[in-house]
Amino acid sequence: MSKNVPKYTVPIKPIRTLINSKFEGYKLKVFDEKSHLIHFQLPLPAITIPKIPTNLKLSYKEIQSIIHFNHLFKGFEINKGKGICFYFDSENFVILAEYDPETSKVVTHRLLKIQQTSDYSGNVEENSSHHLYPNYPSLRALSPNLLLVTNGSGIIFLVQINNNDNVSTYSGEILYQIEFQGHSELKQGSGLNDIPCVLLDGKIIVDEHPHILFLVYNTVLDPISSESTKETRKVLFDVSLLQLSMSPQYEMKIIHVIRGPEIPFYCNIEFNGTGYVIGSNMEYEVVYKSSTQNENIKPMDIDDDQITEEQEEKSTNRVSPYIWTQTSSDVTICFQLPKGTPKTAIHCNFSQTHLSLTINLDDNPNVSPGQPPIPCYAFTRLFDLIDPSVSLWTIEPTIGLLTLHLEKHNHNTRWSHVFQHDDGVFETLDPNEFAEFRERLEKFTSDPIQDTNEQSDQSGAFKPLQHLIGHETEESIDFEGKSSVFMWFEREGDLIAKSSGNEYLCRQFEWCENVEISNNISVLPSVCLKSDVDGTVYSIGHPIDSSKLDVSPLVITHIATFNAFAFVQASKREKRFMFHDPKYRFVIILEGDHRAFVYMRHEGREKHDEQSVVELTASTSGDPEIIGVQMASIENAHVIILKSNSLFIIKLL
């Protein structure tokens, strides 16, 4: 292991003016269940949580992670104002649940079935040398129409959500899947093909080469203690930062791995992909870095001038990925694809601010080495606003011509380039160049014999799709009641900053669409820590230019206080989940099988605040346990709670 010494130590200090010393307690407010509580019966086959066999020798930490696992996953809004969540049903289908706060209706859609290789119900060899048991499947929403999914048994899926030419129905499609095998040292030691893992966070990083950056954790046996005893299972946890390229030739690699004795209760990747913050009860140490694996491989001695000349030559000869032109009202973009590319291989979505375009060429044999780069734009921000309702794309398979027609929202505004970040592709001002581009495609890609037969099948695809685009958010595993440490790890695996605080109580609900930058600080999800009897809320931020300015990349600031929350939560002995509102209006505790405690917060120094108790029971069925929770609507403060056979919506405002 590599022992990290952080460059910066970040203090966590409460602000005295945010502490209400005059607070006396909460007053019970009767919750109006008739108008503020909605029950929705899940469609069959609903959810079955497998029981843990008695012959599994799990550690206490593993059992706690199973008990507190959040089976409800937050998604991005697809239709404005409607909340999106996901869960896995008993047949391993990914289910999309869409909630409309205006009508108080929930609609579910079965997206697709995820391959499941094993579960807890299978036979387990008591004397197994590996003891790597499956986890629950997990999911991270990367955008309104892209998901990262694990099946709990070591397979990772990239899933796209399609709305089937109809905004009211959705289906899913697996774009890519791969086995997670851990880093090279772990792989050699275990002898396993794939290692069960759980997703912690994931982000789409938009740069010169768009990719997905995500974190998973997996269990490893403590090499020191596992040999000394057979009765007590002692484990460690590896947290791996992985990169998945977003192109038809998807490739996944492990960037670095850190190891510690605890499962993190907080994990969030900064939206630019420069690093991430991890929070736990214990510290982590680096056990693997991909950047150090090739240290012994020395490059050939090439003169610097020669390198510069070669780079300039490559830059000069680089083929533009597209050509484009514009009028006062629209922008036209043309891409050259391999001949025979069908419309089903193209996944194109428009929003008012972003373009999402990926091409699936797995079944196309016509991809040649000289082919221009295949377009891959992962939710890339455009130069200016467009009107997605009248923007469209067309494909002519016989010559492989993909054309995007973008209607400008602001007419008479001239675009200097297509995307917000200039990629160096200049506008084609001469209309004759577009005609020549088409002629070249017809000359070099058309088949004279099949030309006449294929002319009748050039209807292409006029398929305008509307999707909101955003960034993703963070993990859903939550522990409580222990001292906390927060660490900032750079992408390469260096620990740069560390902060130690009081007992961890809870974190904020996930808010996928919220990417906030304040005073050049990228604001990450907040946490609530114990401070005497109160719960003090701290924002976690990353100064975007911290490396240039030589300042700490981690900033933790007290921003709100939940009066006496540390005191009241301590009396709840059967806590399943605790979260606070991203806007700091309330904090909620889900206890046992059917009860939610809600503590409201108001600005100022009032002596009392309101407390409500919500009973989550349905007379039409039994009383299964609470297995998940998210916010169905941030703006309206509606909380959605998952049971194995139903959903409950609590309207707090």
TrEMBL record:
InterPro entries referenced in this protein's UniProt entry, alphabetically: CS_dom (IPR007052), HSP20-like_chaperone (IPR008978), NUDCD1 (IPR037895)
Claim: Nucleus is one of the keywords in the record: yes
Compartment(s): Cytoplasm; Nucleus
GO cellular component, one term: nucleus
Pfam family, one: CS
Keyword Nucleus tagged: yes
Domain CS, chain residue ranges per copy: 317-419
Sorted UniProt keywords: Cytoplasm, Nucleus
Record protein name field: NudC domain-containing protein 1
Organism: Rhizophagus irregularis (strain DAOM 197198w)
Lineage: Eukaryota, Fungi, Fungi incertae sedis, Mucoromycota, Glomeromycotina
